[in-house]
UniProtKB/TrEMBL annotation:
MF (Gene Ontology): alpha,alpha-trehalose-phosphate synthase (UDP-forming) activity
Protein name: Trehalose-phosphate synthase
Gene3D superfamilies reported for this sequence: Glycogen Phosphorylase B (3.40.50.2000)
Species name: Catellatospora bangladeshensis
Gene Ontology BP, a term: trehalose biosynthetic process
InterPro entries: Glyco_trans_20
Top-rank lineage group of the source organism: Bacteria
Family: Belongs to the glycosyltransferase 20 family.
Amino acid sequence: TALTQVPGGTYDLIVLANRLPVDHAVDENGRPCRRRSPGGLVTALHPIMKRRSGAWIGWHGRPGPAPAPFVHDGIHLHPIALTGDEVDGYYEGQSNGTIWPLYHDAVEQPQFHRVWQDRYRAVNRRFAEAAARVAAPGALVWVHDYHLQLVPGMLRELRPDLRIGFFLHIPFPPVELFCQMPMREEIMRGLLGADLVGFQHPQATRNFRTLAADLLGAKVTDRGIWYDGRDVAADTFPISIDVAEQQRLALDPAVRARAAEIRRELGDPRTIVLAVDRLDYTKGIECRLRAYEELLSERRLDPAQTVLVQVAVPTRQQIDQYQALRERVERAVSRINGEYAGIGRLSVHYVHQSFDRAELAALYLAADVMAVTPLRDGMNLVAKEYVATRTDGTGALVLSEFAGAAAELEEAWQVNPHDIDGLKDGIADAAEADVAEQRRRMDPMRAHLHAHDVNRWATGFMGRLDRLSRRWPRSAAA
Ligand code: ADQ
């Protein structure tokens, strides 16, 4: 059904993301309150949103009616309501049961259900309608991530005057995988409703351009993608972190003292290996544990002198595949500890909790080896945080070549996480590197991050969108 065009509102800048940038929390007096969520996206966009008094449209995180729009920390927040069925179908279903695994190389089997697809359409339409209502004429709208891939197309129909950008935080798969998706044309048309489509990695951008030509017959040139009478630009914008803030944490005496304390608490081993991931099957936690276990068994790492700290952040706990993964990981951790730990000395410290930024920074400072070995990852900010935290150039990063970050952090010990022997070699080599070798690798990576922080990412994308839409005036605006 065609969407009817609607008159607009007053915001010049609007961000749409599945979640609002605030979490429900409890204040000092035990009363419920809202707190800015710790995510990188919020940190990146907060200054710009504040300056331009922008609006953020997103789900508030609970099923049921949405609270009225409110202002938090200078940003106008417009909550979207989701029913329980929509949380099942749109969020846990189509977004995290279909698209998430499919876009991550189908490392778990994607599930396809028509009722999930219907709810995904309905919720995407609700987001698009909400944006159409509050956007000023010619406003800039930035849509984020795989939950909202139909929104650019829907919004374009409702409000042809808007300048629409879309950024995908996760990988964009090759043609033969993408084409499994029953909604494949619909999703491609949805994305091509944007003026600018951004990806983390050049390969994702190439996949998208190929699909636009193969699936929809779009004309793809160096200049852009010509489809449905409009030009669409597709390009790579690797996301980053707040490097200055990470460095501030790294130099904070309290954080440094905590790092020393963590080392003591772990029994002052020679080597601390650290891994920090959401407990997700894409993160390669099981392969990493297998590699570590074999390194201990072969005494390439000394069980009496080595500790692995595996932080596994709770995530998507309602979904079966995540519950099954958690059980497998916890079994592997117990097995390794059963075999190699001593009384008062663990081989794997497994922490299924969330941490604040300072505690995380202290862990980064305490770790000799950081193992970031996802099977597939859009970018991976943990790798960048580790590098930025090591202001003295020590430390060793083992990085999967299947993380987007591998395109930038070239000096890391890059590994193929599916190749257990290669993974073992990477971890063992990193553990043995002397300080000169560590610095030879860390210094250029840290310099790269200083020149490519998250502010550059955000202003780079928005600046490009601004310029594009001026160069290509739309008929409605002409
Ligand atoms: P994620 O898959 O969530 O993000 P990642 O990029 O590693 O993965 O970001 C995780 C963030 O959570 C990091 O900033 C990290 O510091 C933080 N964090 C980790 N452990 C924590 C803990 N215990 N407590 C609190 N915070 C913790 C998706 C994509 C990635 C992409 C990002 C951004 O899957 O590939 O890099 O979006 O685009």
